[in-house]
Design a protein that fits this description.
The protein has about 450 residues and is an all-alpha fold. Helices cover about 80% and strands about 0% of the residues. The chain has helices at about 5-35, 40-55, 65-70, 75-105, 110-120, 120-130, 135-140, 145-165, 170-190, 205-240, 240-275, 285-315, 325-350, 355-380, 380-390, 390-405, 410-435, 440-445, 450.
Amino acid sequence: MTLISRQMISQIGWVTGSYGAAQALRLFTNVVLARILAPQLFGIMVIVNTFRTGVELLSDIGIGQNIVSNRKGAEPDFFNTAWTIQIIRGLLLFALALLVANPLAQFYDSNELSEIVPIIAAVFLLTGFQSPSRYILQKRQAVKTIAIFDMSMAAASAIVHIALALYSPTIWALVAGLIIATGISTTTSFFLIDFRMHRITINRDHIRAIISFGKWVFASSIVFFLAMNFDRLYFAKEVPFAILGIYGIARTFSDMIGALVQRVGNMLIFPKVAAFAKDRSELRPAIAGLRLKALTAAACGLSLVVALSDLIILLLYDDRYIAAAFMLPILMAGAWFSILSTMGEAFMLGIGKSVHSAQANFGKLLWLVTGVPLALIYSGFAAALCVIAVADLFRYLSLAVSQWKEGLSFLKQDIALLGLFVLLVIVWRLIFTQLGIVADFDAWMAYGSIVNA
């Protein structure tokens, strides 16, 4: 079995193409909403979305990963048992959201949250009932179907959010948009496979298998959430909502890169590695060439984006969001370590070593918890951004050690790719500065005056 084939090249095309189209729609939506709504509204939604994502991840036992990795995952008894567990989880999360709404509002000193969170709780019910069909298609490697579904949902979300914002340019447009878009996604998910296959099922053997696999996914999800969102949670308490909203926009852009690689990893690398039928010793040679090509292309593309990232903000957003032009290049440069880490996690998950993901994210979390508050207090927001940008380096180092122990080390390849990435960023930036396309260093620093004051 080889991991490099025409079929996989086609799959990569569908994954990256659909992701690009969906992100373009989300970007268009974000830009339109930013011109209609005030920055502080995005700051409030940063807290709401972080809370929502956190609650979901903190109760994650790897339903999707179970279906993909288990040999019986596509059998109705197994995926319906997983679906039943997911429904119960959704009901519990709904109740939890209702209970914590007031304490959350008091902690962040925002009365609006006490009204928003109970309404947002409906999202947990909707996602709880969402069909496991997506994971079944992922197991079957039906990439094209998933890609079309994702693009369709992105288009529906864009239409809903923009229409609501035009009708009511308040925080409730964002809240209602999230609920309606989730409802559309949940309803449509039942038609990805034969909807008649869904039924409430409890199979004790399958429950044991799900929990056994999911215990490390659960631990990893807790640490992953904290590692990915500590900055948002901390800034929400320490900086004004307007600054938080601007930072959220910059993070949205930088997260797109890592999310794309994670999508490729989850949709292609993880299932391929999990299905690798030959001896483990043959796995590294089978993936080394594809990995080098993919990361070389990523280094070329990301370096260009880093060099132009402040210009992107200036072109798309008005002066209220100019500070994001200072934040984005810093965050985007750090995305390189996120790419390497996400690739490593996909390999380790594919060989059934999910514990290493938890360990790696714990290293990142420890760095953030220690570094971000100290940087913000003693050196300001810019220093805190730099701490955040290099956080995935610590995640990568942990995974690199784990990969070495499993005979899947690519350290030399990664050092060479890092050198290429840094060189390309410098070259691109010098060229664009000389051409007058982007600002020089002093002008770029001036963009951050609002957060450095």
